[in-house]
């Protein structure tokens, strides 16, 4: 095995890191070989500079914060150094397919992402991927690039989601450049380094199924089972057990999204992680004023991926995954009954989505309202709250956060939440019923408030906060990216000094259109 050569200007720490990265341990994704990926260097990015750095993600990888000051850091994480790597150690783009907006789209793949390799640290292993590092064989009409705007959004949101306790790909850094990139206007290029245990998507399975490459399909499923779900091997049908893992982790993820008012925006099957991670941050959005039909992606004219649709779409996507895995199911059945049995088995496993999702969401909503357990009638109370919030476009995050101040004894603490509703009478009617329910709780107000503040974040990545950080970054002031990331590291803490980051969006935010181009 030859290793990545040390690069002039790269510190010893980063040279060691890149050597470890390309070493490709057993069961690394790259070991699946050329049926699954193409190796190529990143395209050159001129005069790269650091825009954002996550100390937390660095720590996961065993990197000290000081590495960000290494003159070679931006060269490594722009991909520039990969041009010096030997052919057999080059980064890799993987091939996948998928359903986009409900329609089979055929072959897609990493059109602007390149895997660098995998890092073992502290008993965990992470794959690193550059996003925006140039064209690949799967770029189709795209330029292989990502712009600064969308890269900062992905960087901030993936770290913010993690600190909200929501499974997600992570981000180590954003590297910028003055190199122009053409979108609706001319913007500049950036590269995000994403970090995750695996970047395998539902679409990877769909790809090999649709091409009738059953051996490759099995190799991919075996890779995921071996790395992440070794207990599936003990099941009667390991591949059905794998589907079940995807069903469970996806249901749990959707509970997390719905509970914080997060909209993904592009829930195509190629943007669904086999591990149930939030992946591919594009035109996502956290809701300000609650609208059950909120659509954050302006090209989603039908509202397929609207907030209220997300759980159903996840379920639909799991059917696509099940179809992709179908040829692997049922080896334990006799040939004469096999085809009937595998369909029944797959349907049973898929039905588990609803069994998992609905009670879990109900429990989560009860926790958000401060109830220690779920009681008869709670779901109706929750639904009525959402109706009143929807009718008033009450701020999602502030409504739940301020509910902690409502007292079970009287209306003395109602004002902060009540003021978010234009129709005060409608809120009061609901609040009276809420108080009756609270009076059944054993906990006192103070203890309940502490518990509620652990599940109702004060700080989320509102669009206008990201926009402010982006506008400054376009002027080469990256301090707001850092400040905002620091606030979002502690979303459940009061942080009174950062109250402005928790406030209602300013008037100009309502005219913000998050472009789906990235
Ligand atoms: P998305 O739905 O945004 O995740 O992207 C769908 C497909 O388009 C994926 O295969 C991406 O890799 C690819 N893609 C998106 N933008 C670009 C780009 N600028 N250049 C090349 N490929 C891209
Ligand atoms: Mg994608």
Automatic annotation (TrEMBL):
Cofactor(s) essential for the protein: Mg(2+); Mn(2+)
One Pfam family from the record: SelO
Keywords carried by this UniProt record: ATP-binding, Magnesium, Manganese, Metal-binding, Nucleotide-binding, Nucleotidyltransferase, Transferase
Residues annotated for Mg(2+) binding in this entry: 271, 280
Entries under InterPro entries matching the protein: SelO
Binding of ATP, residues: 109, 111-112, 131, 143-144, 194, 201, 280
Example GO molecular function: AMPylase activity
Enzyme Commission designation: 2.7.7.-, 2.7.7.108
Catalyzed reactions: L-seryl-[protein] + UTP = O-(5'-uridylyl)-L-seryl-[protein] + diphosphate; L-threonyl-[protein] + ATP = 3-O-(5'-adenylyl)-L-threonyl-[protein] + diphosphate; L-seryl-[protein] + ATP = 3-O-(5'-adenylyl)-L-seryl-[protein] + diphosphate; L-tyrosyl-[protein] + ATP = O-(5'-adenylyl)-L-tyrosyl-[protein] + diphosphate
Location of the active site: 270
Family that this chain belongs to: Belongs to the SELO family.
Known role: Nucleotidyltransferase involved in the post-translational modification of proteins. It can catalyze the addition of adenosine monophosphate (AMP) or uridine monophosphate (UMP) to a protein, resulting in modifications known as AMPylation and UMPylation.
Entry protein name: Protein nucleotidyltransferase YdiU
Species this protein is from: Paraburkholderia ribeironis
């Amino acid at each position: 095995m030859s290793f990545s050569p040390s690069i002039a200007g790269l510190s010893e720490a980063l040279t060691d890191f890149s050597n470890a990265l390309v070493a490709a341990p057993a069961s690394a994704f790259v070991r699946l070989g050329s049926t699954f990926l193409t190796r190529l260097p990143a395209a050159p990015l001129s005069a790269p500079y650091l825009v954002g750095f996550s100390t937390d993600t660095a720590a996961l990888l065993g990197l000290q914060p000081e590495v960000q000051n290494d003159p070679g850091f931006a060269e490594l994480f722009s991909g520039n150094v990969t041009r010096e790597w030997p052919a057999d150690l080059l980064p890799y783009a993987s091939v996948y397919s998928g359903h986009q907006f409900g329609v089979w789209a055929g072959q897609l793949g990493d059109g602007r992402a390149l895997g660098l390799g995998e890092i073992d640290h502290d008993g965990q292993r992470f794959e690193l991927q550059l996003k925006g590092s140039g064209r690949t064989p799967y770029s189709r009409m795209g330029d292989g690039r990502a712009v600064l705007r969308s890269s900062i959004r992905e960087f901030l949101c993936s770290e913010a989601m993690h600190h909200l306790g929501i499974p997600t790909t992570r981000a180590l850094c954003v590297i910028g450049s003055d190199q122009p990139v053409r979108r609706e206007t001319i913007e500049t290029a950036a590269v995000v380094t994403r970090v995750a245990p695996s970047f395998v998507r539902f679409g990877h399975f769909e790809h090999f199924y649709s091409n009738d490459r059953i051996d490759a399909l099995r190799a991919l499923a075996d890779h995921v089972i071996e790395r992440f779900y070794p207990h599936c091997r003990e099941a009667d049908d390991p591949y059905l057990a794998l589907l079940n893992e995807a069903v469970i982790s996806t249901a749990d993820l959707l509970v997390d999204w719905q509970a914080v008012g997060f909209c993904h925006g592009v829930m195509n099957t190629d943007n669904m992680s086999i591990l149930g991670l939030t992946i591919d941050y594009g035109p996502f959005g956290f809701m300000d004023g609650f609208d059950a039909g909120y659509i954050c992606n302006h090209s989603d004219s039908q509202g397929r991926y609207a907030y209220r649709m997300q759980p159903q779409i996840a379920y639909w996507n799991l059917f696509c995954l099940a179809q992709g895995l179908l040829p692997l199911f049922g080896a334990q059945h006799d040939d004469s009954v096999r085809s009937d049995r595998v369909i029944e088995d797959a349907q049973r496993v898929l039905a588990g989505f609803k069994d998992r999702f609905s009670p879990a969401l109900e429990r989560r909503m009860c926790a958000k309202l401060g109830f220690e357990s779920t009681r008869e009638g709670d779901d109706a109370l929750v639904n009525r709250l959402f109706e009143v919030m929807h009718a008033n476009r009450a701020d999602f995050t502030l409504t739940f956060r301020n509910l902690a101040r409502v007292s079970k004894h009287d209306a003395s603490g109602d004002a902060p939440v009540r003021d978010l509703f234009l129709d005060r009478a409608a809120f009061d009617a609901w609040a009276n019923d809420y108080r009756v329910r609270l009076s059944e709780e054993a906990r006192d107000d103070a203890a309940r408030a502490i518990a509620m503040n652990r599940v109702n974040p004060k700080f989320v990545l509102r669009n206008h906060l990201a926009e402010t950080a982006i506008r400054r970054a376009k002027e080469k002031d990256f301090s707001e990216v850092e400040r905002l990331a620091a606030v979002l590291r502690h979303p459940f803490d009061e942080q009174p000094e950062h109250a402005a980051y928790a406030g209602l969006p300013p008037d100009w935010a309502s005219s913000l259109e998050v472009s789906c181009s990235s």
